[in-house]
């Protein structure tokens, strides 16, 4: 059995005011072509399908058209879960119609699929809260998926009938996953945990969330979950939320974030994007193939010495979307900006970095790196106002959440 793992499509997302819709159409078609070329039996999408709770109509239309095409005439199921950017109720609302096309949409962690048989050969043979078992037209063994769509702590407690609020949430998830695995997941099928969570190896490094991502680890959100919480009978964990493709752990099974198919902020500049193709044999860990995506415009941060250098570098990167920093001893004029925009159609931001001479009235002012993460500027500002004291992690998480909402 072959499965394609993707996530974080963020349909409807813009880069500043620049629409990414055409790129998203292009990259979803590329994912469909990869699925066809590798003859995959199912596609799993690990959350953040849309960029907002109320996506624009063109984003909704693209999702329905693209996923229907990915089903290959209803013979290849697409199983998608909601992420922290998605509205759980809105996400699940078309499920009764979508499942007739072979598309299964889990908006909440306690999503319950109906047992059904499609004329194309796809059958839902067993289901439970947060679990679905499928028989596929071209596979000999069943596909079992534990679906854990994103939810904040309150929704998770409601979904899983949690009473003891003092116990760590990750233990609730561990016990729930284990109970499902014990009941349904033996070595005679392919067993996948599909989740939109912040998962780390216990004691390992904590990866950074994307620069403009709505952070999961914040007040009212969900704490990090450890790979040690995964049941031993799971063959693969398909994660969404982090935009860089990465392997979290290899025990008790391969645990991967597939990453986003496009770079959505300049913190992802020069970051290669992938989908993961998993080749399973029942009872064994899958072979994981990283398939590079080519669609979309690359994001590029350019540091230029003056206008002429900027125009030269822009012409050398005609396809890129550019954040342009211009170092100069003079402020940019309207004519300068006109020349820049005429030279390139993908300029997202122009950042003037004006050099201050020693004779300037403010020559004691420190130079500010305008390309740095805004969180670093916030830390510097906070320290300047609080006698060098740094903000605590809770305040930094709240600041990231505010910045995300503003964007």
Query: Helix share of residues?
Result: 25-40%
Number of strands: 21
User: Structural class, from helix and strand content?
Assistant: alpha/beta
Strand order of the largest sheet: 7-8-9-10-11-14-16-15
Task: Extract low-pLDDT stretches.
Answer: none
Walkthrough of the structure:
The chain is an alpha/beta fold and 407 residues long. The chain is 27% helix and 24% strand. Helix 1 packs parallel to helix 2 and helix 7 (307-316) runs parallel beside helix 8 (334-343). The chain is globular. The two termini are 41 Å apart.
Q: Tags for this entry?
A:
407 residues, 8-stranded mixed β-sheet, alpha/beta, 10 helices, 27% helix, 6-stranded mixed β-sheet, globular
Summarize the structure.
The protein is of the alpha/beta class and 407 residues long.
Give a topology summary:
Elements lengths: L1 E5 L7 E2 L2 E2 L1 H17 L4 E5 L10 H14 L7 E4 L6 H5 L2 H4 L4 E4 L9 E2 L5 E6 L2 E5 L7 E6 L4 H7 L9 H16 L5 E7 L2 E2 L24 E2 L9 E5 L5 E4 L5 E3 L16 E6 L7 E6 L6 E7 L1 H10 L4 E8 L5 H10 L3 E8 L19 H12 L7 H14 L1
Parallel strand pairs: 1-4, 4-5, 5-6, 10-11, 11-14, 12-13, 14-16, 19-20, 20-21
Antiparallel strand pairs: 1-17, 2-3, 7-8, 8-9, 9-10, 15-16, 17-18
